[in-house]
Amino acid sequence: MVSLKREREAEVDDDDSEDGVTAKIGRGRVVEDRRSRHCPYLDTINRSVLDFDFEKLCSISLSHINVYACLICGKYFQGRGLKSHAYTHSVQFTHHVFLNLHTLKFYCLPDNYEIIDSSLEDITYVLKPTFTKQHIAGLDKQGKLYRAYDGTTYLPGIVGLNNIKANDYANVVLQAFSNVPPLRNYFLEEENYRGIRRPPGDIMFLLVQRFGELMRKLWNPRNFKAHVSPHEMLQAVVLCSKKNFQITKQGDAVDFMTWFLNALHGALGGTKKKPSIITKAFQGSMRIFSKKLPHPDLPPEEKEALLVTEEYQEQMSESTFLFLTLDLPTAPLYKDEKEQLIIPQVPLFNILGKFNGSTEKEYKTYKENFLKRFQLTKLPPYLIFCIKRFTKNNFFVEKNPTIVNFPITNVDLREYLTEEAQATEKSTTYDLVANVVHDGKPTEGAYRIHVLHHGTGKWYEMQDLQVTDILPQMITLSEAYIQIWKRQETDDDTNNHTGV
What we know:
Layout: H1 2-13, E1 22-25, E2 29-32, E3 67-70, E4 76-78, H2 85-93, E5 97-100, E6 106-108, E7 113-115, H3 121-127, H4 133-137, E8 146-147, E9 153-154, E10 160-161, H5 168-178, H6 181-188, H7 191-194, H8 205-218, E11 227-228, H9 231-240, H10 253-267, H11 277-282, E12 284-293, H12 300-307, E13 315-321, E14 324-327, E15 345-347, H13 348-352, E16 361-364, E17 369-378, E18 382-388, E19 390-392, E20 397-399, E21 403-405, E22 411-412, H14 419-424, E23 429-439, E24 446-453, E25 458-463, E26 466-470, H15 472-475, E27 480-487
Parallel strand pairs: 10-11, 14-18, 15-21
Antiparallel strand pairs: 1-2, 3-4, 3-5, 5-6, 6-7, 8-9, 12-13, 12-17, 16-17, 18-27, 19-20, 22-23, 23-24, 23-27, 24-25, 25-26
Helix pairs in contact: 5-10, 8-9
């Protein structure tokens, strides 16, 4: 009851008509406080301690209502009236300049007047970066290095993400998607999704808002530091996934990516029939040929009799996909003459054979077995491969260490399309733009990512806060887990598309 009363006081205390910002004179005319443009405390602001990546709540009351950042120490406090935490802090520590994290207005406390000064614009831009269509259109055309306030240089988009405890599995997926231009461009402009209506009480749209905020921070050319904390984004993930994905517990990057893509598609108003930016960028389609198999324990005569019945004839169905799962051959466990385990290698085109329309694979369910083969009917602008490295049984998770040999550019997938699709698909050649790697043991390993910076044509490796450049030929030596490939286009308007 007491905290509720305090919050209400903080709201009342925040009414601009009651503070020292303006005064009404005569017939409703408003004049500005003389001190607003001449605050003597602006030189006490310490930009090096300002960090707006964390949840916007008061450090004392833990309330989200009317939260102000102290620009001298960087801490968050509620309200600015006489009994508020921000007011008390200003008197106790003689810290005078505060920023309302919601209205983006600056105030001097305890005098309680609004500060109007253009030199503070860099602070509001870090808190809430904005991008014009012209700026977005030029992101992939130049590779200019920018200098952060702390002196470090960085390329926007090639920015480290803080590993709070065990969230590197999510970081690499977020980094990968931030380097897919149509997805990035859509989320850089809040107007693209601001008008989407969601049912009352629906929390999933929080995922869209937080992802947009993270994109704008990752691509901000005026950052105070050359790394970003995904704290608010990950809190939304924990909440919206009902704690299936945690910050403090290692997860699987493919599981997270699958959930995240489908959750974003739904939150953006997408359905099976209605597209979203997710399906426009990543959705392809395939034909699935499925044939039921008789139980292996049956006598041969019974098997033959069943195989001619209608139930055991091959059925064809059409299906869409957001990514393709590539199966690795079973890793042999033999050693060489020096007793070293030999790590097997396999060409990418061998494991892509799953989709050639003739390779059959057996799938076992609890009751029945099926033979399936696949053939692609439509290729998306951006194609995601998930290389199946982990197999789970009742007791433990095994990891297949097989190295996949793949070219970085010019992977032609025409032979995996149906004849009709081969006639209609203009471009079937892809170049790699992101490569997620899993190192170490199945349950306690670490993730890193290789991304192509489109403006410079250079490759970079990112592992949490570490960002280093890498030679393309080194990428193929890694235990690739998720890959994003970009279709080569001459007149593809998807790259320039920012709206749905």
